[in-house]
Amino acid sequence: MEKSPKKKNSSPFTSISASRLSMIYRSMIKDFRNQIKIEIKKEKRINGRKYLNNLKRSLGGQNKKEIYLVQKRINKIDKILKKNFKIELILSGSVTKHTYVHGLSDIDILVNLREESPKSINPKMVQERIKNILKTDFKTENDLEAINILVDKKIKIQLVPVILKDKDIFFPSKGGKKWIKILPQRFSNQLKKRDDKLCKKLSTLIRIIKIINVEEIASKNRLKNHHIEVLAYLYSLKNPGEENILNWLHDFFLYAKDRVKEKVRDTSNQFTFVDNYLGKPKNKRRKEVSKNLEEVSNWLIKYD
Predict the structure, then answer these.
(1) pTM for the full model?
(2) Kind of pairing, strands 107-113 and 156-165?
(3) On the CB side of 225, how many CA atoms lie within 13 Å of its CA?
(4) How many domains does the chain have?
(5) Torsion of CA 92, 28, 14, 190, to 10 degrees
(6) Domain coverage including residue 159
(7) What is the pLDDT of residues 110-121, one digit of tens each?
């Protein structure tokens, strides 16, 4: 009697072990440094090489203590939650998109409630229960949609309870009143496909933009990381990439200073727009942000 073929997992999300999560995190730190080294070799101008070398030094080396702490925290989170829920951990966010910057990006982990459905459990109750279970062992931060675990001053693990059903994934709504279907893989796939086509240059560009966003832009006018990723992706469709990363970076800020004045749609279905936090189109705040971005583009002219 022939065995029936095993049903393939059609889900675009893959659960992985806590130790594997830690290995991927470690590789992201090393990956960015290696990409900067490649750009340094290609850069012919003295000022450009100096800037990229300073950037590489600011990234620091792989701190073994930090990596050990992350691995220890993830293992412990996994162990504690599995005593209380039937769950699996799913890697998400900037680590999966290769846009993670150590010290600036959170380590996003989805906590899939394997035996639940959107009708069987209240998201706010789950969030509170997970937080109460973990707060005796970890330092936590309040957040409307996530449970934030502090590893140290620079590293934060962000846990989001979700319900995964086939190809659909349900996240808590803002305030946790209901479950909403979100398509985070749609943008992630678009970004990764574009990045592969541009030989990983897009993810390198995004990471440098995130650093400049913190170091050169007033805190009240900083762009959110997801907003940066979407702007960079849209920009890459118009400009497929300069040979020189610093030229491309300068042109991006020229593009962004005009684009931030208008709203940008969100393909993940989480929000209508990725930049609701900036308010209405062409308002005072957007003009201030635009001015800051223009100042950065002017500052980058010396490398152009």
Answers:
(1) 0.86
(2) parallel
(3) 20
(4) 2
(5) 70
(6) 18-182
(7) 999 988 888 889
